[in-house]
Amino acid sequence: MMRDYEVETKNRITFIRDALSSANVDGIVYGNSGGKDSTLVGILCKKACANTVGLIMPCGSKRNYSEDKSDAEAVARQFEITMRVVDLTAVRGLLISAIDGVTSLTNMALSNMAPRLRMTAMYAVAASENRLVAGTGNRSEGYMGYFTKWGDGAYDFNPIADLTVTEIYEFLCFLKAPNSILTKAPSAGLFDGQTDENEMGVTYRNIDQFLLAGKVNEKDKTIIERYHNASGHKRRMPLVYGG
């Protein structure tokens, strides 16, 4: 059953305003990646708070400078969201050079650098301008653990964490987001040619069917459970010794 997205919009605006008020801040910063999730977060945040800034943060991948950047700019224009660009490609290169000789970086370690550098940049802006950092992860990614710990998994509040990818697209259609956002394959943009579904080996449609209705074939169920069980540490606070 489809949600009432007019009501959802009002409720999420209230949630965002309450988060700002309780933290005694007057602005928001988020990563405007040109993807579905960041688009929805940006629209909702701008509706809740005029002082919303979307950071476009290319970090090594060619698509960060082309398709992603142009889609991010289209969203910012349509919904009148302030846009800034922070190019992190050189910073990533310096970090790789600094670690050279200390260890041999794996592909996973290299992929996770970009989200963590973006988190650092967003918190630097937030701390300097009395803002909160808005998270952009959805329920489907959260369940699968398909996010970077202390990267895009780090934020002050998240207005879409309860929504599956299917619901994200429904919400974006309701809000009349640009067609380019609605039609391109979901991707974290971590490297050229990367798409979420190819990397996971299961479609968001099937993940969402499992989350919303408990329906899934055995092959996909095995993949979903493997991802979920292996990523439990990402969904909890760090373990501490309690005595």
Q: Helix content range of the residues, please?
A: 40-55%
Q: Give the overall average pLDDT.
A: 93
CATH fold type: Rossmann fold
The CATH architecture can be named as 3-Layer(aba) Sandwich
Full CATH superfamily name:
HUPs
* Strand tally: 4
What's the end-to-end separation, in Å? 47 Å
> Radius of gyration, Cα only, in angstroms?
18 Å
**Approximately what portion of the residues adopt beta-strand conformation?**
5-15%
- If helices are DSSP runs of H or I spanning 4 or more residues, what is the number of helices? 12
Uncertain stretches? none
Give a short account of the largest sheet.
4 strands, parallel
Q: How are the strands ordered across the major sheet?
A: 3-2-1-4
Cα shape: globular
Structural class: alpha/beta
